[in-house]
Every structure is written in structure tokens, then in C-alpha cells.
Design brief:
This protein is an alpha/beta fold and about 300 residues long. About 40% of the residues lie in helices and about 10% in strands. Strands 3-2-1-4-5-6-7 form a seven-stranded parallel beta sheet, sandwiched between helices. Pfam families: adh_short.
Length: about 300
């Protein structure tokens, strides 16, 4: 959860303290994935080998998804035993698990992964676009243009490519979801973070356009701020040791993972009619989802 109101928080985003009366830093009973039923469903999670992505993969395993694919540059094959263990501990049949080696900045790599997913599973109920890169702290005049562009290739073009490739399959499947893991940075303007924050704004807008073009056909999309989590990416840039940030990054990966399973479950039909998956706006997984699900889209816009 955010630090107490009034404490220095350079990453404070709109709604951190005001959208709901309750916020969380860890998972809680209302979003327990073992209470959900994703049997027969096929899910693909990019950036699924570690951190938040790993937590999302395991949440769907606990929720009983029958088919789970995790895509990343490396490390997805090693996750197979954890997926099986998570399912068994939740008293669910182990899913058919597909590790995918994919470079989200490469059209050829993404389309190959999508084709393999379709061949193995034959349906697509949920895409979670979690893969992303940060790129470091640079003033605009100091940014290498190729580095700046590469951040967009991974954070924006990648989600576009995998969604585009799997849309025909999703349209055949029926009700389906596209989730873009965005960031509070989509709503902020912090010096030296132009590439990352603009790319997350664009990814959030992508969700809005998916809704605009496909919601009437059963495909719903939304973006989430996953919370302030000490991931490998955060550790690489020293967030865990920074006096400015370490009191802010206190959220668990499981908070986001379990939230996404909850939000994409058909049991929460109120989200479809009320929030309409927030019409692509950026939900905050710190917020109490059961409160959000009762709010109308006009209240959250």
C-alpha cells in the first residue's frame, strides 16, 4: 500500500488514497485464486518467468486454469514444477503448461510464440501483457535514441503484437480478456523517466482502443498498476536501497497476480456491466477490488 498520507511519496498516483477506503500491500481473502474456477481456460502471460509475471502464472494455476503459457526470453521452462505444485496445493489438476521463449521487441519472435500457443491450446481466453523494461534514468538530451525506442518496442509494440496475433483466436473463443500491466508511471511525470512513463501511458491507451474496437465482440481489456513491488528490475536500478523509494516499494507480487485472476474471472460479472473493465483505464491493484467492482465507470474516470 502507499505510505501514510503526508509521507514523502514521489510516486504517488491519482487515486492512491481516495478511490477506495481500503488499500492492501499483500493478497487478501476476497481475491483468493483457490476460490475461482478457470477450468477449460487458456491463459498466456508475457514476462512470466519471475517477479510479478511469475506470481500471475501461479495465480492462474491455483485458480484451476487448464492451459497456461508463460513467455519470456528465458526461465519459463524452469517454472514448470512450480506451476504443477501450485495447482496441486490448491487441489486443482495440474494445467498443461507451455514455456515460450519470446523476444517481445521482435515481430517474428512474438508471432512464432502466438502460433505455438494456438497450435498447443486451440483457444485463448486471457492475455496478460506483463513483459516490460525500465531503461534507467536519463534526461531527454542524454537518452540514446535506440535505447529510448527499444523501451517502446518492448512496453508498447510487444503488447500490440501479441494481442494482434491472438485476436482471431480470441474472437472464436468468445468472452476473453486482454490485461496490460501498466504502472502508476502512466499517470506521472518524473524527471529522467520519459521513455518508461510515456510507454506505460501508451500501453494504457492500447487497452482503451482494444475495448473501443472489440468489446462488443466479447473481448474486454483493462490496465493495472501492479503496486510498488521490489522486482529484479527494481533491484537493478537500486530502488531497494534508495532512501527515497524503499519505504514505498512494500507490495508483494501476489497482490497483482491474485487481483488479475479475480478481475478476469466470470464470477465478477459486475465488472463487465459496471466498470466494463474500466474501459481500459488504469486500475490500481492496491485498491480493494470488491469495492471497485461496485463502482460505475463514470465514477472512476
Amino acid at each position: 500500500m502507499p505510505p501514510p498520507r503526508g509521507v514523502l511519496n514521489t510516486l504517488e498516483a491519482p487515486g492512491d488514497y481516495d478511490v477506495t477506503s481500503t488499500v492492501h500491500s499483500d493478497t487478501y481473502p476476497a481475491i483468493d485464486p483457490t476460490k475461482l474456477d478457470f477450468s477449460g481456460k487458456a491463459v498466456i502471460i508475457t514476462g512470466g518467468s519471475r517477479g510479478i509475471g511469475r506470481a500471475i502464472v501461479l495465480a492462474y494455476a491455483k485458480a484451476g486454469a487448464s492451459f497456461i503459457a508463460a513467455g519470456a526470453r528465458s526461465g519459463t521452462a524452469e517454472l514448470a514444477s512450480e506451476v504443477e505444485k501450485a495447482a496441486k496445493e490448491a487441489n486443482r489438476p495440474p494445467p498443461k503448461y507451455l514455456p515460450l521463449s519470446v523476444d517481445m521487441s521482435s515481430r517474428e519472435s512474438v508471432e512464432k510464440a502466438a502460433a505455438e500457443f494456438e497450435k498447443e491450446f486451440g483457444r485463448c481466453d486471457i492475455i496478460v501483457n506483463n513483459a516490460g523494461i525500465f531503461g534507467g534514468f536519463q534526461l531527454i538530451q542524454d537518452y540514446d535514441p535506440d535505447t529510448w525506442t527499444n523501451i517502446f518496442d518492448v512496453n508498447v509494440r510487444g503488447p500490440f503484437l501479441i494481442t494482434r496475433a491472438l485476436l482471431p483466436l480470441m474472437l472464436k473463443t468468445g468472452i476473453a480478456y486482454v490485461v496490460n500491466v501498466s504502472s502508476a508511471g502512466a499517470l506521472l511525470t518524473n524527471r529522467t523517466l520519459s521513455a518508461y512513463q510515456i510507454s506505460k501511458t501508451a500501453a494504457t491507451r492500447l487497452s482503451e482502443f482494444i475495448n473501443e474496437e472489440y468489446s462488443e465482440k466479447g473481448i474486454l481489456s483493462f490496465s493495472v498498476h501492479p503496486g510498488n513491488v521490489i522486482t529484479d528490475m527494481a533491484t537493478t536500478i537500486g530502488v531497494d536501497k534508495s532512501p527515497e523509494f524503499k519505504h514505498i516499494f512494500v507490495d508483494t507480487p501476489e497482490l497483482c497476480g491474485n487481483t488479475l485472476a479475480f478481475l478476469t474471472s466470470e464470477r465478477e460479472t459486475g465488472l463487465e456491466g459496471g466498470l466494463s473493465m474500466s474501459h481500459g483505464t488504469c486500475l490500481n491493484s492496491l485498491q480493494k477490488v470488491t469495492q471497485l467492482s461496485r463502482r460505475t465507470s463514470s465514477e472512476l474516470q
